[in-house]
Amino acid sequence: MLFLLSGPSGVGKGTVRKALFKKNPHELLYSISATTRKPRRGEVDGRDYFFLNKEQFEKMINDGQMLEYAQYVNSYYGTPKTWIDEQRDQGNDVFMEIEVNGAMQVRAKVPDAILIFLLPPDLMQLRNRLELRGTESDEVINQRLKTAREEILMMTNYDYAVVNDKVDKAVKKVQTIIDAERLKANRLANSYIKILEG
Ligand SMILES: Nc1nc2c(ncn2[C@@H]2O[C@H](COP(=O)(O)OP(=O)(O)O)[C@@H](O)[C@H]2O)c(=O)[nH]1
Ligand SMILES: Nc1ncnc2c1ncn2[C@@H]1O[C@H](COP(=O)(O)OP(=O)(O)O)[C@@H](O)[C@H]1O
C-alpha cells in the first residue's frame, strides 16, 4: 500500500511523520525524496533527502525516473520511482510526505494510494510555527503562507483530513487511518481468495 501525507509547509508533516516512525519503526518504509534545495543544518544526504543539483534533477525527470515532482519556492522536489516500484512489488507498504501538487500527480498515477491531508488549527498558528522553526526568511515564510491558502483548497481531493493540534493526537489519528486501511485491504484480499477458491 502507498500512504501519502501532505499539507501546507510548516503544518507539522515532518514532525508527525518522524513521531509516527519512532512509534512503529518497522511497519512502513519512508520514501526519501530528491531535492535541489540546500541541506539545512543537521540534514543528511540519503537520509533526509537526496540532495541533487538542477542538472541531475532535470536528468531524472527527462529519464522518467520521478513518480512525481514539483517546483516549490524555487527548488525542485520529487519522488524517485524505481525504489517505490521495487518496494510495492515486494509487498512492502510505503509512506510518502510531499507537497500538494505532487500529491495530485500521485492521485492520478496511483489510484489506490491513501492520501492524508494535515491541517493547521488555523493560519495564525501556521505562521507561528514557521517563525519558531526559524529556517526560512520572512520573505520565504510569506510566500509559503500564500501557497498554504491555495493548498488548503485542494483538501477535497484527499481521502482523509487530520488537524495537527497536538502532535500525539495527530499521530494517533494517522496511525488509526493506516490500521483501518490495512484491515480493509486484508479483508478484501481474503474475500478475493475465497471467491477464487470457490
Ligand atoms: N512534490 C513533492 N514535494 C515534496 C517532496 N519532498 C518534500 N516535498 C515537500 O516540499 C515542501 C518543502 O519541503 P522542505 O523544504 O523540506 O520544507 P518543510 O517540509 O517545510 O520542512 C514540503 O511541503 C514537503 O512536503 C517530493 O518528493 N515531492
Ligand atoms: N502540533 C504542533 N504543535 C505545535 N508546534 C508544532 C506542532 N507540529 C509541529 N510543530 C512545530 O512547527 C514547526 C513546523 O513543523 P514541521 O514538521 O517542520 O512542518 P512541515 O514538515 O509541514 O513543514 C516545527 O518547529 C515544529 O516543531
Average per-residue pLDDT, rounded, comes to: 92
Number of helices: 7
Envelope shape: globular
What kind of sheet is the major sheet? Answer: 5 strands, parallel
Structural class of the helices, strands and pairings?
alpha/beta
Keywords:
198 residues; alpha/beta; binds adenosine-5'-diphosphate; 5-stranded parallel β-sheet; binds guanosine-5'-diphosphate; Rossmann fold; 4-stranded mixed β-sheet
Structure description:
Helices cover 49% and strands 19% of the residues. By secondary structure, it is of the alpha/beta class. It has a single domain, classed as 3-Layer(aba) Sandwich (Rossmann fold). The protein has a five-stranded parallel beta sheet with strand order 2-7-1-8-9, with helices on both faces. The protein has a four-stranded mixed beta sheet with strand order 4-3-6-5. Strand 5 and strand 6 form a beta hairpin. It is globular. The two termini are 26 Å apart. 26% of the residues are buried. Adenosine-5'-diphosphate (ADP) binds next to helix 1 and helix 5.
Quick synopsis:
By secondary structure, this protein is of the alpha/beta class.
Secondary structure elements and pairings:
Layout: E1 2-6, H1 13-23, E2 29-30, E3 34-35, E4 50-51, H2 54-62, E5 66-72, E6 75-80, H3 81-89, E7 94-97, H4 100-109, E8 114-119, H5 123-133, H6 138-153, E9 160-163, H7 167-197
Parallel strand pairs: 1-7, 1-8, 2-7, 3-4, 8-9
Antiparallel strand pairs: 3-6, 5-6
Helix pairs in contact: 1-7, 5-6
The structure holds guanosine-5'-diphosphate and adenosine-5'-diphosphate.
Guanosine-5'-diphosphate binds next to helix 1, strand 5 and strand 6.
Function: Essential for recycling GMP and indirectly, cGMP.
Subcellular location: Cytoplasm
Domain Guanylate kinase-like: 1-179
